[in-house]
Structures are given as structure tokens and as C-alpha cells.
Amino acid sequence: MAARRGDTLLFPTPPVVAAHAAIGGKKEGEGPLAACFDELSADNFFGQSNWEAAEKEMALRAARLCLKKAETTPDNVSLALAGDLQAQCTASSYALRELGIPFVGLFGACSTMAEALGLGAALCSAGMADGLLAMTSSHFCAAERQFRTPLSYGAVRTPTAQWTATAAGACLLRPAGEGVQLCAATFGRVQDYKIKDINNMGAAMAPAAAATLLHYLRDTGSAPADFDRIYTGDLGHVGSQLLRDLLAAEGLLLKNHVDCGCILYDAAEQTVKSGGSGPGCCASVLCGHILPRLEKGTQKRVLFIATGALMSQTTFLQKESIPAIAHLVELRSPQQKEENG
Predict the structure, then answer these.
(1) Torsion sign across C-alpha atoms 98, 329, 244, 108
(2) Could you give the C-alpha distances from 288 to 39, 104, 172, 281, 283, in angstroms and in order?
(3) Are 140 and 31 in contact (CB under 8 A)?
(4) What is the DSSP string of 197-252?
(5) Which of 68, 92, 94, 185 has the fewest CB atoms within 10 Å distance of its CB?
(6) Tell me, what's the pLDDT at 339?
(7) How far is CA 4 from CA 181, 185, 210, in A?
(8) What CA–CA distance (Å, rounded) separates 249 from 84?
């Protein structure tokens, strides 16, 4: 059972990530992390007739591959926690329609993967779920059509804009056993610094990442230097610098920070402007890059902080500011369990 300390849940007997899978599209296959994906498609339609169906197919493939790697079936999964950027989380809903697993839809925008991991760990720790799927996805073309302008419009992207990843990630959580340990979760509070530029998500989300990290550090008595890496979800290059500036104002120099949106693509070569974004960005980097490093023991202890901008098409047109949220999970290598054992 979890113990609560401030905004943070601590898991004395940590649930584990028993298996994980990452799926990506064409641009992800051209980036520096291409070798980390379990599957890449040069066809961003994934064999479907439209972008939205393509995202559903991608999420479904990630879930099925994750279950295959765990050598289990949907019948042995108690619950799926999933979300995406499509209205009413339709990509996740349509994917889970085919799997037949009990489903709880989540929406934290690009923060959804950490939200799913934190909630999933709490349910597993409380004995309310045995096998639990935590998964998210995003698709560049579907997101542009929904939140900005259809690709055929040919809008010019600003330097602060980010590229929504065409990617999906899925993790199978279990209450105990072999796998990367989920040791703590901090659920964030909504932050709003009155940013209104829909093409500058990094500026909107950086304060949320800073606030959640500060809450976690105060709740646990930890320091940034206690971790091999502190990963944020998709602040991009602009938001990452703002995060470091915000923390420096609090007396914290963040020297071990890595942003998933900055490493998924080569910003200089791939015309992604400020970097990657989308729920699939941090989910695929987590499943393809971060978790394997923890499994091998090349990293022992990391923080994973996924950030999300919570506007909608309607609030943007109404000239509302963009509130943001960040959720955090602490991950530890299986080797740490053996060393402490």
C-alpha cells in the first residue's frame, strides 16, 4: 500500500514495469533514437485510410507487442489506463475496443504517460490490479488538423513550435516481480503563467514541470544530484531552458536534465523547430530509451516528468491562456533492488 507524503505517493513495495513497447513513424525512424523503437513505419498511415485511424492502429500495435513481450494475453490484464490528443481520447478508445480489456480513459495531454504510470502503480500497490496496461499515443497529422491547421494549408511554423511525435508507447505493470521499479509518484497541480501562444507549448509547460519537481524534492528530501537523469516529457529546447531558469531562481542548478522532446529528433537536421511533443513523444522515449537503460543498470535511478498543455481548440479561439500540468514518477533499476536486498 502506498504512503502519502505531501503531493507524493511512496510505494514501499514498488510495482514494476514487466514489459514495454515503442512504435514510431517515418520521422521518428530518421531521428537519433531510431534504433530504440520496437517497430517503425515508413507509412504514417499505418495501412489505414486516415490519420486518426492510423493513430488507433499504432496504439493497438504497441499494446499487442507489449503483451507479446510479457508472454501474456489481454485476458490476463486487469485494466488499461490510456489517453491521446484526439477528442474524447478516441484513438485509445478505438484501440481498446479491439483488445476487450477494462478501460479507463485519461487526458492529461502530453503528461498522460506519467499520469497513467502513477495511477497504475497506485492501483497495483493497493492490490486492485494485477496486470495493468499504461499507454499513450499521438500522431503529428491528426494533432495538426485538430489543434492548428490541416497540413495542406501549408502554415509556416514558428521557431518556438514543436513537432507532435507520431509514436506510441505501452507498459505492462505488475504489483511485484522482475522489472524496473516504480518507487514514487507525484501528481502535479495546474499552473498557468498566462501564455497564450499555441505555438509555444514549452513556455506554457515549463512552470508545471518546475512546480511538480520542487514538490517531489520537498516531499522526499531528495536533491537533483541523487538521480542519474531527470527526464522531462516534451518541453523542447525553449521550454527546457525556461525550466532550468525557473529552478535556478529557486537555487537549484539542474545539471542532469534531459528532455525527451530534445533527444527524439535532431532539431538541426529534421526541421522540428524547438523539438518533439505529444503524448507519444515521452511514452516512446520512455519505452524505447529510458527503461532499457534502467534494465541494463547503466542508469540506477531516474525521474520521469511528463508535461501537458491543457487547452482545447475552443479555449484557444476564445483567447484563453494555456494552463499546464506535470506528473512525475520515480523509476529505479532492478539492480538497485538486488543491491538493497
Answers:
(1) positive
(2) 10, 24, 14, 11, 8
(3) no
(4) -TT-HHHHHHHHHHHHHHHHHHHHT--GGGSSEEEESS-HHHHHHHHHHHHHHTT-
(5) 68
(6) 52
(7) 18, 10, 20
(8) 33
Residues pairing with 79 in the sheet: 132
Tens of pLDDT, residue by residue over 219-231, are 999 999 999 999 9
Q: Is 50 exceeded by the pLDDT of residue 115?
A: yes
Sole residue written with cell 518507487? 183
What pLDDT shows up at residue 153? 53
Average pLDDT over residues 177-199: 95
pLDDT tens digits, one per residue of 26-54 = 999 999 999 999 999 999 999 999 999 99
User: Which triple of cell numbers denotes residue 217?
Assistant: 524534492
Give me the mean pLDDT over the 183-197 stretch: 95
Lookup result for grid cell 543498470: 297
Please indicate, yes or no, whether the overall pTM of this predicted structure exceeds 0.90: yes
Confidence of residue 189 (pLDDT cuts 50, 70, 90): very high
Helix then strand count (H, E) for the chain reads 12, 15
Read off the DSSP letter of residue 310: -
Residue 323 gets which letter from DSSP?
-
In eight-state DSSP terms, residue 288 is I
Rounded to whole angstroms, how far apart are CA atoms 187 and 270?
A: 33
**What would the DSSP string read from start to end of 121-183?**
HHHHHTTS-SSEEEEEEE-HHHHHHHHS--GGG-PPPPTT--EE--EEEEEEEESSSSSEEEE
Strands 3-5 and 39-40: unpaired
In 3-state terms, what secondary structure has residue 77? coil
